[in-house]
UniProtKB/TrEMBL annotation:
Ranges for domain Aminoglycoside phosphotransferase: 52-251
Name the UniProt record assigns to this protein: Phosphotransferase family protein
InterPro entries xref list: Aminoglycoside_PTrfase, Kinase-like_dom_sf
The species this protein was found in: Devosia neptuniae
Length: 299
């Protein structure tokens, strides 16, 4: 299985910029079909003469303004992950536009959520996350935690006149968890859903570094657990494979994941964002936010 693509004609100014970066005008551009990317547009660039292929991420302007994406932070983490073989090799990052170009991983496709329910698949995902979490955050200037990112998006929602999105008791709990978070700071992905894990038939790769930052790593593990719908027994096995953490903190971070998703999707709804879900239908940001808000009471 590979990505489905359709050939496209690029605007002249974009084609010229890309030619200067890859060193040739002899390339073909394709748009990825059926890929769930709710913030950005992703293209494939193929250079028949050299045999090289690239992934081109065209960033949405709302990412920096409303989602708190820091271009320098994202570029630094993507570069480090690429050098470590955790993510695709970074070729170019434009700090002004957020355009990011990486080496194309041949035969790679995003994981399907149900795949994570298979123990060998989950173990590979955990091992890759663990490698990321061993990178010391001292290498990242200005690295932020997931709690700081949530705070940015809450300020954005307030500016968009969202009203009282989060109830006081939930915000108080978030503040308490932020204060209780372990001090060790490692590089974290912070958006570790199956569509951001690429499988090429031999190994896994992490992609999409917009929300990456620093933390103790348990937020990423919580995202994996939620994706797979694991019960407490399976989560104990997950933590044993990861080699750190406990069920109480994992449960707390699952709650924080729901909080993040609620605020993020509320922002997207307020911005009238439109994007296709994995099945090709429009993704309902408002409904997703309401679903995540309901989970805050359930958790």
């Amino acid at each position: 299985m590979t990505f489905q693509t359709r050939a496209i004609e690029l605007p002249p100014d974009l084609a010229e910029r890309l030619a200067a970066i890859v060193g040739t005008t002899a390339f073909e551009a394709f748009e990825l079909v059926g890929v769930q990317s709710l913030n950005n547009r992703v293209l494939q660039l193929v250079c028949p003469g050299s045999g090289q292929a690239y992934a081109v991420r065209l960033a949405s302007e709302r990412a920096a303004a409303h989602m708190g994406v820091d271009r320098r932070e994202e570029a630094a983490i993507a570069q480090i992950a690429g050098k470590a073989g955790i993510g695709p090799e970074l070729v170019h990052y434009d700090l002004d536009s957020g355009m990011m170009i990486s080496k194309w991983i041949d035969q790679a496709v995003p994981l399907q959520p149900q795949a994570l329910r298979q123990r060998p698949v989950m173990l590979q995902a955990i091992a890759l996350a663990r490698r990321l979490h061993t990178i010391e955050a001292g290498e990242i200037a200005g690295g932020r935690t997931i709690f700081e990112r949530i705070a940015h998006m809450e300020r954005s929602a307030a500016a968009l006149n969202a009203g009282e999105l989060i109830q006081a008791r939930h915000r108080n709990r978030l503040d308490a968890l932020a204060a209780a978070a372990p001090q060790p700071r490692w590089v974290t992905h912070n958006d570790l859903w199956p569509n951001n894990i690429l499988a090429d038939g031999r190994r896994f790769w992490l992609t999409d570094w917009e929300f990456s930052g620093i933390g103790d790593g348990m937020y990423d593990i919580a995202s994996l657990s939620l994706s797979a719908g694991l019960d407490a027994t399976a989560e104990q096995d997950l933590l044993a494979a990861y080699g750190d953490g406990d069920l109480d903190w994992l449960a707390a971070m699952k709650w924080v994941v729901c909080y993040f998703e609620a605020v993020w999707s509320a922002n997207m709804a307020l911005l009238s964002a439109s994007a296709p879900a994995a099945g090709g239908q429009p993704f309902d940001f408002k409904a997703h936010s309401e679903q995540m808000l309901a989970k805050l009471d359930a958790g």
